[in-house]
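Appendix B. Raw example, untouched.
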Amino acid sequence: IQVAFFAVGAVLLLWYLAPWVLNHILNAGNVLGIAFAVVLLLCGMFAQPVTHLLAPGNHAPGAVVLKAAVALMCAVAVLTSGYMLTGLIQTGHRDETVLVLGCSVKGERPSRMLRQRIEAATEYLEKNPDSKAVLSGGQGPDEKISEAECMRRELVRRGIAADRLYLEDRSTSTEENVAFSAKIIEQNGLNRHVTVVTSDFHCRRGMLLCQRAGLTASSTPAATDVYLLGTYWMREMLAVVKTVLHI
């Protein structure tokens, strides 16, 4: 048990540190992940008292509270992750309106994560020549152009006709991405059946927000680099819970 605590803790610590060390990404996802990894390492250091507290026959008040807390956190993590995974099930629908959710722009060039979303959108639009796309994302303080404009340029460069692309360039959050894009879809008489193109971890929340905006949503997930997935999955779990509970 002690070896398992140390091994799992060390692997998770490296996984959640990687985005910070390699890309200077530090958010709620890897902060929580690092904290969890440190807890596992501490459990390895104090394996005997920890296993005594978690033993099934230990009914001391402190042990009961600890076991209840662990069970609750595990249940929330499993249920939330399972719900997020359902967002990756693709329906095979054709000719939907493509809603591409923005991500950071480096100057005027797409970040790697945004490029992955652009690649997924390109593939769908090439397979569905009757589909239109709404490109959603405003301009951050460190971005020279809006995320929507960056996506438009990249898609046109890849051979997608500009008249198939509608820009939503005011949003600053996923909620605004969807709300503002839904208005563009309505104003231009676009198909209200949409496929949400975004990173795999982000699909379920994007679909949920689309459904709340009166759209019928499926997903076209873009892959996330493995070393980033743990960090963004953890952060998205918190965001999904917040969205479901309308906090």
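End of appendix B.
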